[in-house]
Amino acid sequence: MNKHSREKLDEYIGHYNQMFGSNFSTKDSQSFYNYYNDISKKVKERKVDILLVVNMFLTGFDSPALNTLYVDKNLKYHGLIQAYSRTNRILNEQKSQGNIVVFRNLKKHTDDAITLFSNKEAIEEIIMKPYEEYVNKFNEIFIELLKITPTVNSVNNLQTEEDELKFIKAFRELMRIKNILTTFADFKWEDLAMTEQQFEDYKSKYLDLYDKVKSDHQKEKVSILDDVDFELELIHRDEINVNYILKLLANLKDAKQAEQEKKRKEILDILSGEAHLRSKRELIEKFILENLPVIEDSEDVPEAFEKFWNEEQIKAFNKLVEEENLEADKAEKLIEEYLFAEREPLRDEVLALIEGEQPSVLQRKKVGDRIISKIVKFVDTFINGITGN
Hints:
Elements: H1 5-20, H2 29-44, E1 68-71, H3 77-85, E2 99-102, H4 107-117, H5 123-126, H6 131-148, H7 161-181, H8 196-218, H9 242-254, H10 257-273, H11 281-291, H12 301-324, H13 328-341, H14 347-351, H15 361-382
Parallel strand pairs: 1-2
Helix pairs in contact: 3-4, 6-7, 7-8, 9-10, 12-15
């Protein structure tokens, strides 16, 4: 307590240096500036989980992954707004708001700040409603969903596109509110009229409809569902990736005979419930049926899967090139550029890949869009979610 604040800060920086192998200090402005920037970088990379802040980082610092601010300081006006805003960046639509946990009574200061920088009516829009209100809203929409589709299987029996659209809108709203509910520390499925398993089952049907609409759109069938935003970001979960599936496959290999069918179904259910893995389900199921039984040790699963995946990728690429009569080298280069720029190829770019005679003016749009669709599907299946993470 008797140390000067700068001495204490140097002590903290020393701990930081030990942890991350750095050499920062407060001895000169550049070194301290580098320390600040290094912390910023590590917070954004999620290498720092909790950041204790006095003044710096309350303003002018942006990291969308931050979701909770714990406040034990008498913040006011612009300082309060800026501090609260640190957590309030939307992240892939999964994070629609930030959490502010306040250990002091800042209700009046918060209302005053919002009134000053917006207006009094905006308080209702900016501050989240109580948890119970979202629970009640979720349950009300669930009742509306049951009127449209009383059971999960009844989604398959929807007669018209208008009925399908009603289901899509109802379940999409459920997803939005569920994402808000999960930001509350108090959230538990027991509070809702819908069980977690029901939600997952309806979600799978929702994704089935998305696949159907996408497939019909590729066939140039006019549909009222073509322009519907399914908001798949609402159901994307980073923790369910191919590495996670590989762990499940290894567990399946080690499972006793009596448990294998149950574990296989669990894996396939996960693949059906994750939008970014559905395109991989058929191939992973093929790996389970044909390759997994001949692998001797579960530790060999990742290597065997990589070999299988590479072989299937080559087959799919060759099939794409052959079906559309494309120049293989140019097609491979275009896919690499697509991945690097994170931009879908243009119609003229894919048409330039065709060997021999170009399609007629009347056929250019149809042929070009078909090839783009196949390239996007190829990338989604074999590359997205496989490399890197």
